[in-house]
Amino acid sequence: MMQLEEQPRRRRVMDTSNGEARRAVAEIVARFSSWRLDLARFSALAERRFTADDLNTMLARCAEIEAELLAARTELIVGLAEAPQRVSGHSRVVDVERAFDNIDASVKQLRGKLTQ
After folding, report:
1. ∠ CA 63-112-41, rounded to 5°
2. CA 116 to CA 104: how far, in whole Å?
3. Distance CA 76, CA 24 (A)
4. pLDDT (tens digit, 9 = 90+) per residue, 43-66?
C-alpha cells in the first residue's frame, strides 16, 4: 500500500486590525463626550435668552472645540501614518473621521445660531 505524505499544516493568519484600530482611536474617542456635551448644552441655551457673558463663553468654547478637533484630526493622521491599510482604512477609523465632521458641523451651526 502507498502511504500518503502528510502535508504540513498552514498556520492560520489572525486579523488583528480591529484591535489595532480600536487602540489607535481610543484616546481620541474619549474626547468626543465633552465636545458633544458642551455643544448640546450651548444649543439648548441658544434657544433661550442668554447674556453677553454667556455668548462670549459659548463662542470661546466653540473656538476651543474647533482647535481641539484640528489637533485630534492631526493626531489621528500622524498616529496612523505608518499603520497598515487594513488598520488606517478600518471602519472604526472611518467612523471617527465621520464623527469629526459631524462635530465640526455642529460647531458651525451653533456659531451661526449665536451670531445671527
Report:
1. 65
2. 18
3. 8
4. 999 999 899 999 999 999 999 999
